[in-house]
Prior knowledge:
The protein is mostly beta strands. It has one helix and 14 strands, in the order E-E-E-E-E-H-E-E-E-E-E-E-E-E-E.
Amino acid sequence: xxxxxxxxxxxxxxxxxxxxxxxxxxxxxxxxxxxxxxxxxxxxxxxxxxxxxxxxxxxxxxxxxxxxxxxxxxxxxxxxxxxxxxxxxxxxxxxxxxxxxxxxxxxxxxxxxxxxxxxxxxxxxxxxxxxxxxxxxxxxxxxxxxxxxxxxxxxxxxxxxxxxxxxxxx
Length: 170
């Protein structure tokens, strides 16, 4: 399961500043997942966007923001909802770093290392709102696709080996 080249994207994605966002994962599996494990390298501003059914951005995680000195999680649904922490030199231009992003239990969490969901590897978290189902019941937020971008002029970021995570993986 997860992101495979034939169903979602290639196992390696290079994102160059000023180009339009690329897909990290785009499949019917994304809306049933609870997170993604990935490798990333770059100078600064590796952005992963969680998008809703119309591919509009609902939440964003930025790794290496402000000259590779911070991580940021933010909601585009409510500009007041933002979390950030100091994480100097988290990104590296030559070596990949394994990271994860989860969206479960009403929390968006960004972490470092191969053990997704473990609080000791969590860098920061952000509360996320439940969504209303067609029947009117509250449900956990689930993105429909994941996009990656790099907004910093003259910069580039590389992602590889994206793997969707499901409840049994965490």
